[in-house]
Amino acid sequence: MNRLIICSFAIVISLFAFTRKSKKEATQFTENQNFVLLELFTSQGCSSCPSADKLLEKTIVDAQKSGKKIIALSYHVDYWDRLGWKDPYSNAQFTQRQYDYAQWFQSSNVYTPQIVVNGKEEFVGSDKAKMSRVIDKILQTGASVNIQLEEISWKNNVLNLDIKLSNLAKNSQLNVALVSKNTETNISRGENEGLKLKGSNVVRVLQKIQLLTIQNKVSLPIPKDAEKANTQVIAFIQDKNTNQILGAEALDF
User: Fold this and answer.
1) pLDDT band for position 169 (50/70/90)?
2) Of 248, 251, 25, 13, nearest in space to 152 by CA
3) Is 44 within 8 Å of 192 (Cβ atoms)?
4) Other C-beta atoms within 10 Å of 53: how many?
């Protein structure tokens, strides 16, 4: 009888430990984990961009294998659209974001492919050596703001989320993006005519949340062609005074 009680108790303890472990493993990243947020500005109409798109894809895949917290966003700008091919993922909002960065970096123009890392450094998006150096350097710094994403619902072309924040600083801006993890497009005109171009973490929707609290409810419109299995939500906190990214998190479906 005593053996039965001891055995039952051991099973309960094991189940409790397994449940706690499962919950912990369900969290994609640990709090304050060192992170990198990559923001690539690209276009399907730019002949120099496919190499940057491929580098971003490889960086994402390598990060998944190594367990490094590298989160990526691919913004398709619209100023190439008038030169023969209209990029179906282009958006004037993304072009404006690049111009905002140009002003911050005291540059008089914008270009593609350009990558911005944690809002602090920018360079040509196809520069593999510099990408590696900058990522290794920035991965030495942990997040100062913790972000927790929870899926609420995906229905009627609207995604509703709870976003919980901790260690929130003044002058913080919450940005929430809905991305298509993988895209393929046959290009029939322009500089990349005849090519099938792939995209990774292509931003479809970007929303800024001005008023931040510890817990934020966010609704995002879902593009009609978006597939749940190919969608990811990315949230990141940016200091409005310094442009530095203070924390970032991603949620797959």
Assistant:
1) confident
2) 251
3) yes
4) 25
Alpha helices in 79-204 (DSSP H): 92-104, 128-138
pLDDT in tens, 112-147: 999 999 999 999 999 999 999 999 999 988 889 999
Mean pLDDT of 185-199: 97
Residue 25: Cβ-neighbour burial (10 angstroms; 0-12, 13-18, 19+): exposed
Dihedral sign of CA atoms 52, 53, 57, 60 in order: positive
Determine the Cα–Cα distance for residues 196 and 245; give it in Å rounded to an integer: 33
Q: Are strands 231-239 and 172-186 parallel, antiparallel or unpaired?
A: antiparallel
Token pair 């001005």 is at which residue?
A: 210
* CA 20 from centre of chain: 28
